[in-house]
Backbone:
């Protein structure tokens, strides 16, 4: 995977002025739903990534191949109308995919393991008589 260049302050300002830029920082750029719908239509028509971004006022050399292909990847299997009129809040942007499901499962397994250890520890303490059960 190629490492993408960091945007300078000047480039961040330049990118922010583009009507299709929703949010930009020194390391990332988010596009408006309008741009994503346009990108979706143009990719369906077979246009190359570089040409689409150039036509929309972006410098493909500045964005880099990786950023452009990531934007295109987010349109795969979607129709232009699938993109909302307003961008989603940042917390809801991520789709829950298989990786996040696996991560959640791993967390639950670790929590269950800790709870099991705690129960075993409490059983041992009760067996030694240090803590008396409430039944006594």
Residues:
């Amino acid at each position: 995977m190629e490492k993408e260049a960091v945007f300078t302050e000047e480039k961040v300002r330049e990118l922010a002025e583009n009507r299709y830029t929703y949010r930009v920082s020194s390391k990332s750029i988010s596009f408006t739903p309008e741009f994503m719908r346009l990108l979706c239509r143009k990719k369906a028509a077979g246009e190359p990534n570089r040409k689409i971004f150039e036509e929309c006022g972006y410098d493909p050399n500045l964005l880099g191949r990786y950023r452009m292909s990531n934007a295109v990847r987010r349109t795969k299997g979607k129709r232009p109308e699938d993109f909302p009129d307003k961008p989603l809040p940042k917390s809801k942007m991520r789709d829950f995919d298989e990786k996040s499901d696996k991560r959640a499962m791993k967390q639950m397994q670790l929590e269950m393991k800790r709870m099991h250890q705690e129960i075993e520890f409490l059983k041992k303490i009760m067996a030694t008589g240090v803590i008396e059960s409430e039944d006594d």
